Amino acid sequence: MVDMSTQDHSPASSASSTPASPRRIVVITTGGTIACTTDRSGALTPTISGAELVAAVAQRYPEGMLELEVRELGMLDSSNLAFTDVDRILAAIHEVLDDDSVDGVVVTHGTDTMEETAMAADVFHADSRPVVFTGAQLPYDHPETDGPGNLFEAVTIASDASAQGIGVLIVFGHAVLPVRGATKWHTTDPLAFATNAPEEPVRPDPLPLAALAGSKVEIIPAYLGADGSQLDSTVAAGARGIVVEGLGSGNVSDEFAAAIDRAIAADVTVVMATRVPRGDVHAAYGGAGGGATLARHGVISAGCVHAPQARIILAAALAANVHPQTLF
């Protein structure tokens, strides 16, 4: 994680190094808290256009430094997104990058599911140019809103040549995070995202863009006394993949393990994540529900990736018809 608060990113400090031709950054806006204002009842609703969001930060750059373009995809609440919406966002990113004159992409997005959409973008991101996700914890009309600052820093990173070739990033609360392993760790703190990944997470080879819609992948939690009946029901409902949010380093009860075995026998791919905030999944324990036994039976480890991102990776593998193990 890079903390931008310790660095001088003011345009004035770099004015002397302003390139002869402006860097061209496209900002794709999708709604979220960054675009919200407060209605009479106190509820937040997205009302601010992409042009308004970008206008609030464009004036902070020296003239001729950047060319900012807005592509507005709508006013979406990220807690209400489905794979069809994610597919639209991914298609927009790829369409923008089809233009060789573009130097980077910024996507504004609600924080509730930002880590998932950004993970989907990373799985299919074969371009060296940066794609940066950002948003806000406070609405546009809040006196201490963090949206303009986050957007300014996201655009700054997207226009920096040093951000090329490292995959999709989340820039938020002065932090710069590779998306793999990133998670929203606080509901209200300005530093909304943290990471469970190593300092330099390994990115698997990206996939050709494929539609996620139609990939039925579910998350089933393990907990004290969980018997696996939810997993059986999910398989019966037609799931092609299941991510288990396991206990500890990736363990479940014996009954739950039996349900996993039944799922694998039914040709359902099972990935094991952990409900623990920090640390990787390790195939360490024996016994029917131990991680070592489950791995021998074909359960794939999610590594440092938590269940929501593991679901995205598994869905992408199924959509692209590649073995999921190659993406974890």
From TrEMBL:
<feature type="region of interest" description="Disordered">
    <location>
        <begin position="1"/>
        <end position="23"/>
    </location>
</feature>
<dbReference type="InterPro" id="IPR027473">
    <property type="entry name" value="L-asparaginase_C"/>
</dbReference>
<feature type="active site">
    <location>
        <position position="111"/>
    </location>
</feature>
<feature type="binding site">
    <location>
        <position position="78"/>
    </location>
    <ligand>
        <name>substrate</name>
    </ligand>
</feature>
<dbReference type="Pfam" id="PF17763">
    <property type="entry name" value="Asparaginase_C"/>
</dbReference>
<feature type="domain" description="L-asparaginase N-terminal">
    <location>
        <begin position="24"/>
        <end position="196"/>
    </location>
</feature>
<comment type="similarity">
    <text>Belongs to the asparaginase 1 family.</text>
</comment>
<keyword id="KW-0378">Hydrolase</keyword>
<dbReference type="InterPro" id="IPR027474">
    <property type="entry name" value="L-asparaginase_N"/>
</dbReference>
<dbReference type="InterPro" id="IPR004550">
    <property type="entry name" value="AsnASE_II"/>
</dbReference>
<dbReference type="GO" id="GO:0004067">
    <property type="term" value="F:asparaginase activity"/>
</dbReference>
<feature type="compositionally biased region" description="Low complexity">
    <location>
        <begin position="10"/>
        <end position="22"/>
    </location>
</feature>
<dbReference type="Pfam" id="PF00710">
    <property type="entry name" value="Asparaginase"/>
</dbReference>
<dbReference type="InterPro" id="IPR006034">
    <property type="entry name" value="Asparaginase/glutaminase-like"/>
</dbReference>
<dbReference type="InterPro" id="IPR036152">
    <property type="entry name" value="Asp/glu_Ase-like_sf"/>
</dbReference>
<protein>
    <recommendedName>
        <fullName>asparaginase</fullName>
        <ecNumber>3.5.1.1</ecNumber>
    </recommendedName>
</protein>
<feature type="binding site">
    <location>
        <begin position="111"/>
        <end position="112"/>
    </location>
    <ligand>
        <name>substrate</name>
    </ligand>
</feature>
<dbReference type="InterPro" id="IPR037152">
    <property type="entry name" value="L-asparaginase_N_sf"/>
</dbReference>
<dbReference type="InterPro" id="IPR020827">
    <property type="entry name" value="Asparaginase/glutaminase_AS1"/>
</dbReference>
<feature type="domain" description="Asparaginase/glutaminase C-terminal">
    <location>
        <begin position="216"/>
        <end position="325"/>
    </location>
</feature>
<feature type="active site">
    <location>
        <position position="33"/>
    </location>
</feature>
<dbReference type="GO" id="GO:0006528">
    <property type="term" value="P:asparagine metabolic process"/>
</dbReference>
<dbReference type="InterPro" id="IPR027475">
    <property type="entry name" value="Asparaginase/glutaminase_AS2"/>
</dbReference>
<dbReference type="InterPro" id="IPR040919">
    <property type="entry name" value="Asparaginase_C"/>
</dbReference>
<feature type="active site" description="O-isoaspartyl threonine intermediate">
    <location>
        <position position="33"/>
    </location>
</feature>
